[in-house]
Amino acid sequence: LTLYCDSNQLSVIGQTLPASLKKLDCSHNQIGVMPFLHNTISTLVCDDNQLKMLPALPVALRIFTCSDNQIACFPTFIKEITEIDISGNPFTCLPNHISAMDVTTKAYPICVKGDTVNNPLGCDSAGLTEIKTIGLSQLKLYPNPGSGVFNLEIANQIDGEALLVDVYNMMGDLVYHSAIQGTSAQVDISQQPNGIYFVRLRGENVMLNTYLVKQ
Predict the structure, then answer these.
(1) What rounded mean pLDDT belongs to the chain?
(2) Strand, helix or coil at 103?
(3) How far, in Å, CA of 117 to CA of 204, rounded?
């Protein structure tokens, strides 16, 4: 399955994508947040949007062009990628290098926590364990859809570490930030307008991504 939605004025492309999707071209739009990417996707073209972040990249990904966006922190690059273009983004470091990168891209340092010179935003390096993808049971966020206050439950405490909870609107703007210790918390975005929101939980060794809908 191939989805071409390039050269429109789209600000969102939906909460979820088809599980059988193999190629996605959503370039030249106004998209702020990319939905969860199923591991079947081998081609992702998202140049010239307003993306500020990306979810974990699919393991099948071979062609990845996402130039001219606002991405400062990239997820780990799949080493089997054969074509890549991430130019025109404001990153100062990368999670890892892969052979398909050109010399200019490979010249950027690897992100290291605590490096305030090359990694002022605290971007993650390669090696985080992606423990949450849409459809798995480690994370519950309910009621979803909801009116603004959502209950967050994690099946098991993750090695006792605190998790940071970030919620972004579909333009990629951070609208909620909190830290939780334990297995439950509340996320309150009642002051935000109705719509779809991207939720990212991250810790020292883990990262979880999902969505919620306020209505």
Answers:
(1) 86
(2) helix
(3) 20
Angle at 70 between CA 18 and CA 2, to 5 degrees: 20
The helix (H) or strand (E) run that includes residue 2 is strand 2-4
Question: Cα separation of 55 and 33, whole Å?
Answer: 9
Average pLDDT over residues 188-195: 93
Q: Is 201 exposed, middle or buried (0-12, 13-18, 19+ CB in 10 A)?
A: buried
pLDDT in tens, 14-69: 777 898 999 999 999 999 888 888 899 999 999 999 999 898 899 999 999 999 99
Asked if residue 134 has pLDDT above 70, the reply is no
CA dist., res. 62 & res. 80, Å (int): 6
What are the residues whose beta carbons fall under 8 Å from the beta carbon of 121, sequence distance 6 or more?
72, 73, 92
What is the bridge-based pairing of β-strands 163-168 and 174-180? antiparallel
Q: Which of 206, 201, 199, 202 is nearest to 15 (CA)?
A: 199
Tokens 């090359």, located at residue: 118
Query: What mean pLDDT comes out for the span 152-165?
Result: 71
Residue 208 near residue 138 (C-beta atoms within 8 A): yes
The Cα 183–Cα 138 span in angstroms is 10
